[in-house]
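Lecture notes, structural biology module. Today: joint structure prediction for complexes of two components.
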Amino acid sequence: EPEVTQTPSHQVTQMGQEVILRCVPISNHLYFYWYRQILGQKVEFLVSFYNNEISEKSEIFDDQFSVERPDGSNFTLKIRSTKLEDSAMYFCASKGGAADTQYFGPGTRLTVL
Amino acid sequence: GQSLEQPSEVTAVEGAIVQINCTYQTSGFYGLSWYQQHDGGAPTFLSYNALDGLEETGRFSSFLSRSDSYGYLLLQELQMKDSASYFCAVKDSWGKLQFGAGTQVVVTP
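The predicted structure, tokenised, for the full assembly:
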């Protein structure tokens, strides 16, 4: 069964450093999302991406964040200058059509020291 | 504002039935989804309601009343492996999911 994959599973970085989180969505999916979950809290929407552009973003997704689909398979989230409060689990999700279910990847645990 | 309310924790014994309620106040409502999450794991899709009524998928059922801004997830014949967090999530007209805070279900022998 096809699944969303994410790398790395765990990333540790120093405050102020740039990180890139990678996702490979399910191959024929067209809609892509990033969510984050701070430990013990709910899953929060960050950004949605369709047709090679951002379709919606939340207040969390400020100028320090960016997304890219550099090729036909990868979908990346970049944080330019990490802060302590960026420590969280970051989930990528994808879906095939507008009305379809979103499927989540296993997540990347980001720890900012 | 936008909010989803669900109980923080429910405890039940194996074989029992558990109902997790979710009330929501959001803009651009398109449907209500339910996801299961085991500790440290990815949210896993369980069920989705776009229209009023009951959707049944094996031991899990989900119900929606759009007029009451209310839904629930019903877990039947509880098993130990059902111990997890369960999230309701509103799908808005843009397609994104807005999650509730989650309900921790604890299944005891």
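Point to remember: The longest strand of chain B covers residues 29-37.
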